[in-house]
Amino acid sequence: MVNSLSITLINVLGLSSPSHVEQIISNQKALLKLNEEYTSTFDLTPSFIIFNIISENNLQATGSLSLESLSNSKSQTLWLRCKDTSSSSRDIKIKITVIKNISESRNDECPYLTLLSSGKADDLISKRLEERLQKCEKKIMKINFEPDAPPRLGTEVKIYEAENLTELDTGRLEGIGGDQIKKQVKILSEEVKKIGLNTVQEHRDELRNQVTERTSQQQDFERFTEDAVLEVTELISEMWGLEEQRTAVMQKIMDEENRIRENHIEIDTLNGQLAGLQRDILMMKALRVRYKDLENLYSSEENFLECSKKAKSVLAKKFEDGKLAADVVRGKNEKLIEKLCNEAGEYDGKLKSIIGNEKGLAEHNQNLRNALSELKVKLSDKSLEDSPDVSLASNDRYSCISKLQTLQTDAFEHDQESKLKYKSALDQKHTSYETLINLYKTLENESQSCLSKHLEKYLSTNELTFLEQSCCIQGDISNLTESLTKFLKFYASSNKSALGYLDSTSNQILKETVNIKDQCNKINDIMNNVVEKDSEVDHIKAVMGEIKLRHPPFIPKLDDPIDVALFEFIKSCEEPIPIPFTREESGIYLFGTKRIFLKLENGNIVIRIGGGFTNIQNFIEVYTPIELQRQEEVIEETNPQFRTSQARFSQSPQKGMSPQRAVRIIQGVVEVGSSGTPLKSASPFRKTPNKK
């Protein structure tokens, strides 16, 4: 759709300069949208140029320019402004460049023709050379090879042949014309051809000899590459044979380890059965001891009955004698009461007399006080310092004070000596305890160092064998690569087919070496896994041994009914209790780290918790997970690798077996159904709570 436009043509013919036109158009740039893209097309007619302005596939403006205004124009640029009077009110400008016709301004006359016709060719040549030399930074010699270029006037043309060619220099070359240079070049080329025809046959023979040598070398190289490929294949087959032997040896080692593991399991089962038999034997011995105790009790009760009968008759006699003695004592007591009544009357009289004399004593006391005050005054005046009575009294007082001080110092020294003895005894106890702990620690460190040395020795031997094998392989490969590189350098100029074949063989050898290195790395990984598994097995054995020490067989105390009832309850449980009951005193036990109180109530065991009692089943269900968690924390503090070993032992680390379950599995394997109240451990690292 063509919009209604008012077309204004700015013709530069009537203006002073094209810059004025650009200034007029630039004042209207504010109305244009600079971000829009415009496309202009035009149609040329004999009298007009028609313009079409397109933006976003829409016709935005159209205009025409008359060609009559361009006929006498000397400027090179015209501007066409199309103004839209609709709602947008924007200017669209078009720049037109006037291109002059070259044919109109072309002049066919040669500028140098007048100089040549006047016979001044030397001036023309010298002028052109000077102009060119001025334009160039360096002095370059220009030679004209035009066929009609005449020689310089007044110069002789010398003919140059192969003998006097060395006399030609730049100055003489500039003085020679183009046709003479062509003739000289033609003569020299003919002489060169004549000279070269004699040695063509020799060059041909040399080339044939080189071709025969090249073919023989290529055949030798092919034979060598075939031999090298055969050697490499033999080495690879030997490597595969060694690899198969190694896998067979590793399979034998794994079979032996499985057999050892099965033997350990059988040993553990036999130990469990042995523990069960020992428990039955202990039960039989306990019953036998109980029956013997009952027989001894029966005989002792009979003896006690006879002795009690005899004692009864003796007591009856003594009772009669005591009755008679009591009657005698009663009579004496009556007489004594009468005597005491008389003495009480006398004491009443004396008391009354004492009360009467109390006033006199008070007056006497006042007099004594007055005398005492007078004595104090005299003492203050120091008038009685030489009195013998006062000196004796002071001496007696000081002697008494000194005796009291000596007694006090003796008592204090005795107390200090007793404290020092007690302190020294405590120090000796602590030192002995610390020495025992240090001995335990040194023993454990020595065992750990021995294990680490054995492991290092095993690892070093394995690494040594692996390094020897890898060195042999690398030596063979290095020899092959060196020989191949030598032949590559020697036959670098051979055929492309030979080079391609050599590249393919070298790539194949490199691939085989990479495969061999990968196999060696896999073997190294397998050996490392074997070493890790061995260390894990040793660690699991140590943990199982520690669990065995923590859970010794049950030995009940027969004279304690609570301990016997606890044994019967543990024996009746279907699954073993993972946390042992450790007896401290009658009715006081340790359940892991918790100190508890047990008692029998209607034949059942109850446990005191806080202010009340609960049955043993509820107590075990509640506190077993707590104590297992504490044991796990202690084991993780002492042995950080226990969790990883435990996860690998269970063969399902991704599923996330709980530590409690793993501990139960290990304890079940160790104990094999045996349970009970173990004896209190005598290890110095075992911490027992203080008794309340």
UniProtKB/TrEMBL annotation:
It is found in: Cytoplasm, Cytoskeleton. Residues 639-657 have a biased composition (Polar residues). Residues 553-627 form the GAR domain. The keyword Cytoplasm applies. Residues 639-659 are annotated as: Disordered. One of its GO terms (molecular function) is microtubule binding. Its main location: cytoplasm. InterPro entries: GAR_dom, GAR_dom_sf. Keywords: Cytoplasm, Cytoskeleton. GO terms for cellular component: cytoskeleton. It holds the Pfam family GAS2. This is GAR domain-containing protein. It comes from Stentor coeruleus.
